[in-house]
Every structure is written in C-alpha cells, then in structure tokens.
Specification:
Layout: H1 3-25, E1 33-35, E2 38-40, H2 52-84, H3 90-120
Antiparallel strand pairs: 1-2
Helix pairs in contact: 2-3
Length: 127
C-alpha cells in the first residue's frame, strides 16, 4: 500500500468516525418539520401545497448541487497539487490530469442531469 493510499484511508476513516460520532452524540431532535401530519427528520420546505414532491425534489437537488460542487472543487485542488508536485514524474502527472479531467466530467454530468430534469418535469424543478 503506497503512502498516498494510507493517507487516503486514514482520511476516509476519520471522516467516517466523525460523522458517526456526530450522529450518536448529537442532541438534535430528529423531527425537524411536519409535512401534512408526518414528522420528518429534515426541513424539506413543505409548504402545505398539493405537490409537495416538487419541494422535496428541489431540496434534494440543492443538497446534491452542494455535494457535487464540493467534490469537484476538492478534486481540482487535489489534482492541481499533485500536478504541481509531480516534479517531472510522468506517471504522477498523468494521474493528476486524470483527476482534474474526472472532476470536470462530474460537473458536466451534473449539469446534464439537471437540464434533463428541467426538461422532463412539467414546469421545471425550480420555479
């Protein structure tokens, strides 16, 4: 196992441990909102209208947009640092370029998914 893989494994394990501890030891109330008599664990912006799935879908897409943005930003920064520290190592340069390319492809795919949803759903997802 290379040094980078060990660092990635330790980072993933620490993130997992942090999220588990946050869930176990948090004192939050899990019923954050009431959607037509149903207690929900998350504030879904239920407006009490007829079509609440649209508000839930919009909220999910907003959170997904944040996650994709963070992942793409981290991927580009990680690839850029790897590229800058390659120092003539051709294999590391190719790997860095691949990471940056994959991050940009992920962003393009997210925009394509968003555009397809806007087209398929009557009136669009976002009003």
């Amino acid at each position: 196992m290379s040094k980078v893989s060990k660092v990635e494994s330790k980072l993933a394990l620490s993130l997992l441990a942090t999220s588990v501890c946050t869930q176990l030891f948090s004192s939050t109330v899990h019923a954050a909102e009431d959607c037509n008599g149903t207690a929900t664990f998350f504030k879904w912006n239920c407006s009490g209208g007829d079509n609440q799935i649209m508000s839930v879908l919009g909220q999910i897409l907003n959170w997904l947009a944040i996650g994709v943005s963070v992942a793409v930003l981290v991927g580009i920064i990680y690839g850029a640092v790897m590229y800058a520290s390659a120092g003539g190592n051709e294999a590391q340069t190719k790997k860095a370029i691949g990471i940056i390319r994959n991050a940009i492809i992920a962003l393009i795919l997210y925009f394509a998914m968003w555009a397809i949803l806007q087209y398929l759903i009557p009136g669009g997802v976002f009003e």
